[in-house]
Specification:
Blueprint: H1 11-26, H2 30-46, H3 51-68, H4 71-84, H5 91-103, H6 107-120, H7 125-137, H8 141-156, H9 163-179
């Protein structure tokens, strides 16, 4: 089906394209989802406003390109997003960058990006576990154990755990059991 251009002033149309992108991604039609997001990105780039909106769109595109295995396109989106993120304060972008580097086996770059995520939010349990995994893969077992233990202390100090926190705690416990 042909995609129709969207108008900048039509917020409903933009939301519709975002919903279409989500639906296409859910059924594994990553190329079609990318096309929908690129339409939204074109409009968003023309509108003055927050760069965080553009960074979020690029972050979604990076994920889709990564899922397709198109690392060259993901690299191009990362470069565009990083150019917009002058202060380096987009937590989602830094997390995406870390995961991207980890998938490519670029562990020192992944470690640096996870550390940036934790600078932005020291209570990010998901980033702490993922950093622990990256440190473990690099043979930095003591430092990995320190991050994982710290994450468990943070999580277990709460009265209630979210599903994400519970999953992260379980993963951290499994990793720490390997060190015993």
């Amino acid at each position: 089906a042909l995609l129709t251009p969207i108008m900048a002033q039509d917020e409903e149309e933009i939301q519709l394209h975002l919903q279409r992108a989500d639906a296409r991604q859910a059924r594994g039609a990553y190329g079609e989802a990318i096309s929908q997001l690129e339409l939204v990105l074109e409009v968003a780039e023309e509108e003055p406003g927050e760069s965080s909106t553009l960074i979020e769109l690029y972050w979604r595109l990076i994920q889709l390109h990564r899922l397709r295995g198109d690392y060259a396109a993901a690299d191009a989106c990362i470069a565009e997003a990083l150019a917009l993120d002058h202060a380096g304060d987009s937590q989602n972008l830094q997390r995406s960058l870390a995961r991207y580097h980890a998938l490519r086996g670029q562990y020192p770059a992944a470690e640096a990006a996870y550390r940036r995520v934790l600078e932005l939010s020291s209570s990010d349990v998901e980033a702490q576990v993922e950093l622990g995994e990256i440190l473990d893969l690099q043979g930095k077992k003591i430092e990995a154990a320190r991050y994982l233990s710290g994450m468990l202390d943070l999580v277990y100090s709460k009265a209630e755990l979210s599903a994400l926190e519970y999953a992260c705690a379980a993963k951290a416990c499994r990793l720490l059991d390997l060190y015993s």
